[in-house]
Amino acid sequence: MINVFIIGSKGIPAKYGGFETFVEYLTKRKVSENITYHVSCLGKNNDEFYYNNARCFNVKVPDVGSAKAVLYDLMSLQECIRYIKENNLTNSIVYILACRIGPFFAFYKKQLEKMGVKVFVNPDGHEWKRSKWNYWIKRYWKFSERLMVKHADLLVCDSRGIESYIQDEYRHYRPKTTFIAYGADVKESSLADDDPKLVDWYRQHQVKPFEYYLIVGRFVPENNYELMIREFMASNTKKDLVIISNFEQNAFYQQLLEKTKFDRDPRIKFVGTVYDQELLKKIREQAYGYLHGHEVGGTNPSLLEALASTKINLLLDVVFNKEVGADGALYFTKEQESLSQLINMADQYTQEQIELLGAKAKNRIISEYSWEKIVSDYEQLFLNS
């Protein structure tokens, strides 16, 4: 029996982003009887519970501001060490999601090494490039990443682009890496076309099925909202641009409004967040097209979900997006008129062209990014390590 301790996500049941959804599916779709998962969860107490047949342990972390995530990982790691020692576990792997604890990593790694425990790290994306961080936090992220790459037994990259970056940037450490992608679900939404939830949502936002382009993602500058809104406004499309994002009380929203004056274009519709996953899936399925401007990070969950559900996907031409979309998407650059012309072109697609592109997009997910494949890849990795 192999015991796999997963730290770095906020825990399960998943209520948040990519890592949480990953841990949810990894435990829910588990096939092997020879793996036991132990999942760290950010909690209000230090209770232990079982979910998806995984042992989940809450870690109560004091509120120390922006350092809370670092402290959470350290406290989770300490708890893993305590549990392994107390239960005399001999066959264990600690899998750390993201590179937050680099300066402290060597200290704990020595302890784990003495106990015969391997440590795997998922380096995530280029966190040190994100605009929300100030200069010093970006410096910390980069430094932390370097130290975690240096000391990890294995780096599990969810993007070939990230794997290439790790191998190139840190080649003097000769890092051991492997690639296992993030996953997506290709099952259609359970909501019918006339479901009151869907009909009410369309009515509330004055949107019609297949008469809108869609953006879903964190409302941050590096996801290129300004570029996509400007280009959409410059296009000739009669369709709406529906933006599902947490824009409320966001200073970036006000900056964008002042720069682009998008409030003068009735096609641009910020609709807030949609937490109902079946409703969100249905909204994706009934979008005419999906716009994706992410350029920081590896395999992006919202892109996988779009390819699984939306037939026309217009992606920013960067290595991470091309790796995922391949021939199942259309690509735009940051040059003026690149996206607006692409939207004009997509508007003229015949039903046959739309269906063909949609089939290619979905096949990308089925062949390379299905949760069945991802879970199987991880189980093989853990069992053979």
TrEMBL record:
| The UniProt record lists the keyword Transferase | yes
Per UniProt, the keywords (alphabetical) are: Transferase
Species assigned in the record = Parageobacillus galactosidasius
Tell me the protein's name. Glycosyl transferase
Q: List the Gene3D superfamilies hit by this protein, alphabetically.
A: Glycogen Phosphorylase B (3.40.50.2000)
User: Which branch of life, at top level?
Assistant: Bacteria
Query: Has the keyword Ribonucleoprotein been applied to this entry?
Result: no
Q: NCBIfam families in the record, alphabetically?
A: B1-4RhmsylTfaseCps2T (NF046071)
Q: Which GO terms describe its molecular function?
A: glycosyltransferase activity
| Ranges where the DUF1972 domain occurs | 2-185
